[in-house]
Amino acid sequence: MDYLKELEGKSAHDYYHHQIKVMDKMVSTPKIWVHGPVIVGAGPSGLAAAACLKQKDIPSLILEKAECLASMWQHKTYDRLRLHLPKKFCQLPLMPFPKNFPSYPTKQQFLTYLKTYAEHFDLKPAFSTSVVSAEFDHRSGFWRVKTKGMKKNEEVEYICQWLIVATGENAEEVVPQIEGMGEFQGSILHTSLYKSGSIFCGKNVLVVGCGNSGMEVCLDLCNHNAHPSVVVRDTVHILPQQMLGKSTFGLSMCLLKCFPIRFVDQFLLLMSHILLGDTSQFGLNRPKLGPLELKNLNGKTPVLDVGTLAQIRSGKIKVCRGIKRLTQHTVEFVDGKVKNFDAIILATGYKSNVPSWLKGTDMFSEKDGLPKKPFPNGWKGENGLYTVGFTKRGLLGASIDAKKIAEDIQHSWKVIEEATHVLHDVRKKNTKIFYD
Fold first, then answer.
1. Which of 54, 115, 191, 267 has its CA 20 to 30 A from that of 290?
2. What letter would DSSP give residue 282?
3. Residues 151-159: what's their mean pLDDT?
4. pLDDT tens, position by position, 248-291
């Protein structure tokens, strides 16, 4: 609790701090005034926001439920994971990746980068601190963020002028309900628990979901001599990770500066057909909309192929239709086929959990937990509420949000700081007159 005492000591003479103390003097839960924004989440988004604020000499308090930075990257990702985009599109504001890192850093390299980033900007989150609720108090004009310690179960309420939601789009696993799940005798696990295909050697494994994670898990299973199949229920765009010696993403960004999105989509599809062939012959039908237009419309990310398609083409990875039901040892698909499987891996993604703890605001949709306003306008709400990392545009989107938030808070920060200095000067002057 040393960090709490430090925060309280720094704000002991702050006007707003005294105002809150007077209002809550009869309440037993400790109240702490935060001299700056409260950031919920110590993942890449939260760190980026805190660093941008720090650059402008604005302090912040980061609250993190887990015991470490970027807990999802640390505990819920598979071993072979690499960044799917080149590092220059994934670096956080104000500090690039080390030059000796490869174009596509590994999971461990990315975690090392985040640790170095936090140390460089002297960011010290309050770990093992779960936010129970956060709500704007219209009576006082401040945010009240109620927390509970994950280890000692202590309760603390933070009072702040600004609240930055940085818990991300991937806070909780999405686990679909499939008929017969309780009967299936094999193991069923979400990709958040998958580390390596080594434990599935020689086994028939069904991967449910054909996004980037699902496709890469299939490849990893192949590399460990398992026999994977992948469920593809919907259409999907598969693009090569590299085109013409450049990353597909980087090439797309360059082309969009000069050409309309539909032209760039047609170019990407033409190159994909040349490099990858007709994916529909393997049961991977493309959507009617192009990959970039589809991404802009609903945030659906195209799959960047890192070798999975070659294994599908060779027959080592089987493509299956949607699941109808499970039995003890088999899976029945909607096309009537029945196959035996030893394990099922759910690559069914994640969802935001913001509506479960953020109260009294309609900024977030109850349906998917994302900001109702589409990119690029979803980063700012009312009464000093901000979001970072909810753009469906990965680390690049989070960096854009973080910079905007810091600039916006800086404007009101200057006004408040000037008003506080004036108030202190008046107090000193009045005190001097009294004693004189």
1. 191
2. G
3. 91
4. 999 999 999 999 999 999 999 999 999 999 999 999 999 999 99
- Percentage of the chain beyond pLDDT 70 is 89
* pLDDT tens digits along 183-196: 999 999 999 999 99
Concatenated DSSP letters for 306-369?
A: SSHHHHHHHTSSEEE--EEEE-SSEEEETTS-EEE-SEEEE---EE--GGGTEES--SB-TTTS
Pair 159, 142: CB distance under 8 Å: yes
What are the strands, taking DSSP E only, across 358-400?
358-359, 385-387
Give the pair of three-digit tokens for residue 358. Answer: 């953020």
Architecture of the 31-171+352-429 domain:
3-Layer(bba) Sandwich (3.50)
| Beta-strand relationship, 129-137 and 142-149 | antiparallel
Per-residue pLDDT reduced to its tens digit, 37-86:
999 999 999 999 999 999 999 999 999 999 999 999 999 999 999 999 99
Q: Token pair 């000069």 is at which residue?
A: 258
What's the token pair of residue 231?
Answer: 């469920």
Domain 174-350 matching CATH 3.90.180.10: the answer reads no
Q: What are the two backbone dihedrals, phi and then psi, of residue 400, each rounded to the nearest 5 degrees?
A: -60, -45
pTM for the full predicted model: 0.89
Residue tagged 């670096």 (tokens)? 91
Please tell me the total number of residues recorded for the chain in this structure: 436
